[in-house]
Write a structure and sequence with these properties.
This protein has about 60 residues and is an all-alpha fold. It has one domain. About 75% of the residues lie in helices and about 0% in strands. The protein is built from four helices and no strands. Helix 1 packs antiparallel against helix 2 and helix 2 packs antiparallel against helix 3. The protein is elongated.
Length: about 60
């Protein structure tokens, strides 16, 4: 079984490789791991929130010229 730190590192690697869906799953797993520190939980959940904001961004000015 992977530690929270290992899950976090895997999530960060996936994010760097633009595999956001998988990265979100690993970030959530890192935050939920029994050995997750407050730092890992905070970092993981902040990363998930940021990726969701980025993926949901729509520039309406570009859609309506």
């Amino acid at each position: 079984m992977e530690t929270a730190r290992q899950l976090l590192e895997k999530a960060e690697e996936l994010r760097r490789n633009n595999r956001f869906g998988e990265a979100i799953n690993f970030f959530r797993a890192a935050a939920a791991a029994p050995d997750a520190t407050d730092e890992i939980k905070r970092k993981s959940l902040a990363s998930v929130e940021l990726m969701q904001e980025i993926n949901g961004f729509v520039n309406v000015d570009l859609m309506n010229p």
